[in-house]
Write a structure and sequence with these properties.
4-stranded antiparallel β-sheet, 120 residues, mainly beta
């Protein structure tokens, strides 16, 4: 079983920056996709950014040019650098990972979520 633990959320003024981190732990696994989703009150969860083991990335149009996703494969950790934050970025941010292990050819898991609040 792979577990994800997020950190780095908080309250920031519009135009400010935050950096989210998500570390994966467990035994005998290899992660091939890590990413971030977010869910604002009353809205569906949406993709923010993903990064694959080879380094390929995808971003939501709403965050392109402002957010940067990166990962440290040795630490099984993914980061989301968020710059030029807007009030509409306010949401609970969830870390996501897809992996394979000695007991599962494919699995996915979510973190518990971290709140990001951007004040105007």
């Amino acid at each position: 079983q792979v577990q994800l633990v997020e950190s780095g959320g908080g309250l920031v003024q519009a135009g400010g920056s935050l950096r989210l981190s998500c570390a994966a732990s467990g035994r005998g696994f290899s992660i091939f996709v890590m990413g971030w989703y977010r869910q604002a009150p009353g809205k569906q969860r949406e993709l923010v950014a993903v990064i694959r083991s080879g380094g390929n990335t995808n971003y939501a149009d709403s965050v392109k040019g402002r957010f940067t996703i990166s990962r440290d494969n040795a630490k099984n950790t993914v980061y989301l650098q968020m710059n030029s934050l807007k009030p509409e970025d306010t949401a609970v941010y969830y870390c996501y990972a897809e992996y394979y292990s000695s007991t599962r050819p494919w699995g996915s898991t979510w973190g518990q979520g971290t709140q990001v609040t951007v004040s105007s």
